[in-house]
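go over whats below:
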Amino acid sequence: MSKEMLLSTRQKQAQQTRQRLLDAGLAVFLENGFQKTTISQIIKKAKTGYGTAYVYFQNKDDLFIELMEDVMNRFYEVAELPFEPTSNEDAYDMIEYQVRQFLTLAIQERKMMKVVKEAIGLSEDVNQKWMEIREKFIKRITVDVRYSQENGLAKSSLDAPVVARAWFYANEMFMWEIVEKDISNIDDIVTNLTKMYTSGLYE
């Protein structure tokens, strides 16, 4: 076997081992919650050795952060939906759709998001990563607000980053409420959030 083929085989095995640890971690976190989960439980479920596991993840917090990023990337895909409205009506429809998709994901990922909420309160590393994720969303929303302002749809007197931050916080608040209170019907939340935001921002 050539050196290149051997390296490729090792890389594939490493990827499979890493994924096995992530899959095991997800299962254990969902079953036990963040606080009660141990790295030992994850390693046992993944059927890997301690030494092997620590090659990929420093501790359970490190592994959980990757799982959290994976799920939040699904939420971020909603933030990245094309946003180039040509009228206020277009903007309203697009924003309403984004809000609905974002909050629907909160329902779909409720079990994981409950663990995320717990972890944010217990781990400084997880909390720090959550702050970074928030800022990523806010920066993306700022781009959309500025687009609307530059195209004469939104009030130019408003500060785009401040508006974006307020908008994300509003959605985040309802996301956690949906997760914690097991809310399934989000129609009223979507309608009122969208109306409140668009009536304040758009001309």
